[in-house]
Amino acid sequence: MNTSPLYKAAGVDIDAGEALVDAIKPLAASTRRRGADASLGGFGALFDPKAAGFKDPILVSSTDGVGTKLKIAIETGRHDGVGIDLVAMVVNDILVQGAEPLFFLDYFATGKLDVEIAKRVVAGIAEGCRQAGCALIGGETAEMPGMYAAQDYDLAGFAVGAAERGTLLPRDVKPGDVLIGLSSSGVHSNGFSLVRKVIRDNGLEFESPAPFSNDRTLAEILMAPTRIYVKSCMPDVRSGAIKAMAHITGGGLTENVPRVLPDGTRAVIDARSWPLPPVFTWLRQAGNISDKEMARAFNCGIGLVIAAAAEDADALLGRLKAVGESAYRIGHIEALPDPKAEPVAETLNTAQAWK
């Protein structure tokens, strides 16, 4: 079916939309898993938790976007990794509740549909789904002239995961537990409004050589996709070795870790216990950003924090390193004087570690 001349003149090309659906069908099919056939084209997508192996599942859902990191993708033409970012921001939030991500749906909105760009974005989404072990079972593409500039686009993602009843996290977190940090791949997908301001204030371009790297541009480093921690962590979630996890996104270490702690406790995190990636050192200095704001705005090199019993920590560290994670013992949990006080996180020794 050809797009009507009037509708196309108004800025909407139905033929382009159909071409995109045809182009991404093989990408969705590559994410097949038990419970879903990952086919596209129906009015709704189906998933069978029983076929996925669940007996009495609790469903866990999450939705998110990529934020103003998309501005860099659009301005530099680096569209291939933002789909991974989209999946990561959603499935990591499902993971930290002790659930296995099952299926994912995306929303791609643009002023004028460029099939090649959209295909590159969706290819990244499919890759993120493969990394997370979830099926890309549906989505929506919206061409909205007048709402977005022709070259602009926005992304949103939605996923559902499941855990057997009684196994959700956090569970039994208490003083004396050890905190383990898993390295991020960089800035991930938070804090980019501040990142862009620092670059602008320093008279740099995204394709400028990175001041802290001899052979890479700022765009290359900043556009590194967000790490997906699902396959690394799920075995220890199921075994019970992991008691709680915090995905370090907006709010950084100081605001995300307390979300999984019980009242009357605090997380004590030593910033000297992991290497600070050079991009954060540069942002701190070039932007004149305080240590407190760094810990709230960025992940500062730690993308996921795990709480585990002290007696399990060494073995857990070993298993995480064996599957390719850079993992560090970064702190512990201790009791507050008031057992009813709201939980907090304190990051110590930042001045020494982040100079």
Provide an overview of this structure.
It is a single chain. With 355 residues, the protein is α+β, with helices and mostly antiparallel strands. It has helices at 5-9, 14-29, 69-76, 82-95, 115-132, 192-201, 218-222, 230-239, 252-256, 278-286, 291-297, 310-322, 350-353; strands spanning 57-65, 100-110, 135-143, 153-164, 178-183, 244-247, 265-270, 302-308, 327-335, 344-348. The strands form two sheets. A six-stranded mixed beta sheet has the order 6-8-5-9-7-10. A four-stranded mixed beta sheet has the order 1-4-2-3. The mean pLDDT is 92.
The largest pleated sheet is described as: 6 strands, mixed
Helix count equals: 13
- Rg, rounded, reads 21 Å
Structural class: alpha+beta
Proportion of residues in helical segments: 25-40%
Distance between the termini: 61 Å
Mean pLDDT: 92
Order of helices and strands: HHEHHEHEEEHHHEHEHHEHEEH
Identify the strand order in the major beta sheet: 6-8-5-9-7-10
Count of individual beta strands = 10
